[in-house]
Amino acid sequence: MDLAQMAGWLAAAAAIIAMLQKSDLRLKQGLIIHTVLYGVHFALLGLPTAVVSCVIALARITLSIYTRSLLCAAALIIISIAMALALSRSTVEILPLAASVVLTLSLFRFDGIKLRLGLLAGSVLWLIHNICVQSWGGICLETCFCLSTLWGMWTAAREQNKEPKKKVCP
Fold first, then answer.
1. According to the model, what pLDDT value does residue 164 have?
2. Is 151 helix (H, G, I), strand (E, B) or coil?
3. How far apart are CA 99 and CA 127, in angstroms?
4. Is 65 helix (H, G, I), strand (E, B) or coil?
5. How far apart are CA 140 and CA 25, in angstroms?
6. How far apart are CA 151 and CA 91, in angstroms?
7. CB 113 within 8 A of CB 159
8. Neighbours of 110 (CB within 10 A)
């Protein structure tokens, strides 16, 4: 296994460990470690747009620890779009930065099912990218993200259906 793929597998492991955390702060701290490793993985694969997306993700996660400011979200989205236009040479290279826009909007604006749908959409964009560039750790990671997001949505919906319906009239 080469160094690039090893970094990808380490990024996947860090993300899975992060997702197991109950504390939001520990989750975000774990995602910071994951994002650094993911950036190293993509740098070693020679994929500059994916690296830029990881740098933006690192800023997004770090800022989200301290604020939910729309100004911060807008700045990150503008940076993502500018980088996509400047660096992308193919449709595949636009995908990580498109995911960055979706994930930024989701993290700063949505909650509940809408948040999870946004996270799922971002993961699907990354999954397509990783399949195209043969990032095996990335494929594993995004598949786990997609499945865990779908599982969380399914269990939340199931719990909602178990709650007794409120009667309008007695």
1. 67
2. helix
3. 10
4. helix
5. 24
6. 30
7. no
8. 14
Q: Kindly tell me if the per-residue pLDDT of 167 is higher than 90.
A: no
Name the DSSP class of 165: P
Contact predicate 49/84, CB 8 Å: yes
The dihedral sign for the CA sequence 136, 139, 143, 149: positive
User: CA of 43: how far to CAs of 79, 81, 154, in Å?
Assistant: 19, 20, 36
135, 92 Cβ separation under 8 angstroms: no
The pair phi, psi for residue 89, each rounded to 5°, is -110, -10
What is the reported pLDDT for 31? 87
Residue 163 tokens, joined: 């709650």
pTM: 0.76
Asked if 7 contacts 44 with a C-beta cutoff of 8 angstroms, the reply is yes
For residue 124, report the phi and psi dihedrals to the nearest 5 degrees.
-65, -40
Long-range contacts of 32-40 (CB under 8 A, 24+ apart): 32/58, 32/61, 32/62, 35/11, 35/61, 37/7, 37/8, 37/10, 37/11, 38/7, 38/8, 38/11, 38/138, 38/141, 40/7, 40/11
- Give the C-alpha separation, 20 to 15, whole Å: 9
Rounded to an integer, what distance in angstroms lies between the CA atom of residue 132 and that of residue 48?
15
Per-domain boundaries in the chain: 3-162
Confidence band, pLDDT 50/70/90 cuts, at residue 34: very high
Residue 32 and residue 62 in contact, taking contact as beta carbons nearer than 8 Å: yes
